[in-house]
């Protein structure tokens, strides 16, 4: 069987490394180039000894001609702004790209400018208009046809999947949506940063970017599409979002508070709505109202576990959604998207 040829740019970052792990166990693909500006020339297993006996591959400096000619699909696991410099040079009639950064997630380049404090390079939307938001449970058919997939952010993945059934079925109001999320430290990437030192994070728990986290416009864009059925002229749904840093390596738990429209609705009716919405979805596990998801249930997996409780006293529903930020929140979801784009069974390589 002819294998699909894959390259990864940004292969030594946390998400890039996770992609390598998954793809080395994926029967339908072959890794042809692993690009690293820092470690070019070294073997993968010299930089990360955990790959000993698994891969002898050398990390390479980027050579655009070679990588575009040799690959069927390129994953870009780069910081935002770096991706948008590169992707227009990679895409062609044949080659497909899955970008793990935020650069092609927001449809409006002016909103990107506002939240990322840098002008988007694609102001005429040549590439933004073809980019598909890579959340398979919502955009499966579009992803199958896509040449450029914007892989969702980690917080947005947990939140959008947790809230989509309630918003789509208009069980809740679109106003006063409050979201409180907690992430492990790998969510911030591998770059050195004072606030992420062991002694700063260990035995500690803190909120950060309490106002203005740059995942907010992505969450609002997607929740608005679901609630207002894609009608962009409609009012935008707004959220109040507070992220927190957990003293663990990986995992996200989001707690979302929404006002119920009908105060008579019962938990078992909502459970049926969730089951119905996610019917046939391998990677979504909806918990009975008697149980709640925990981060450790999903660590190292591509699952998103969702639970909820109705708080009758105040007329609210509380939704709790957990993912592994590096798998369903990044590399696993990217491979799920690849499987769709190349018509492989969707779970290939992801039953971890
Ligand atoms: N971490 C998560 O949980 C997560 C979840 C969802 C999405 N994402 C997104 O996925 C992308 C990658 O995230 P990550 O956490 O894997 O990041 P990371 O650990 O910081 O890795 C990014 C890699 O990109 C390479 N790179 C190339 N040019 C660079 C430049 N100008 N500045 C810095 N690095 C450069 C670096 O590898 P070399 O030096 O070897 O080239 C670096 O290791 C980001 O856009 C991030 O927002 C991350």
Tally the structural domains: 2
CATH class value of the largest domain: Alpha Beta
Alpha-beta classification: alpha/beta
Shape: globular
Helix content: 25-40%
Number of helices: 12
Q: What percent of residues are in strands? A: 15-25%
| First-residue to last-residue Cα separation | 23 Å
Q: How many strands?
A: 14
The average pLDDT is 96
CATH superfamily of the largest domain: Dihydrodipicolinate Reductase, domain 2
Short account of what is shown:
The chain is an alpha/beta fold.
Structure, described:
With 352 residues, this protein is an alpha/beta fold. It has two domains: 4-151 and 329-341, NAD(P)-binding Rossmann-like Domain (Rossmann fold), CATH 3.40.50.720; 155-325, Dihydrodipicolinate Reductase, domain 2. The protein has twelve helices and 14 strands. The chain has helices at 14-24, 44-47, 64-70, 82-90, 109-116, 136-145, 154-168, 198-201, 216-227, 267-277, 295-298, 327-341, and strands at residues 4-9, 29-35, 59-60, 73-76, 96-99, 131-133, 148-150, 177-183, 206-207, 239-245, 252-259, 284-286, 304-311, 316-323. It has a seven-stranded parallel β-sheet, sandwiched between helices. Strands 9-10-8-11-14-13-12 form a seven-stranded mixed β-sheet. Helix 11 links the parallel strand 12 and strand 13 (304-311). Helix 1 packs across helix 12 (327-341), helix 6 (136-145) runs parallel beside helix 12 and helix 7 runs parallel beside helix 9 (216-227). The relative contact order is 0.14. The model has no long low-confidence stretch (mean pLDDT 96). The structure holds NADP nicotinamide-adenine-dinucleotide phosphate.
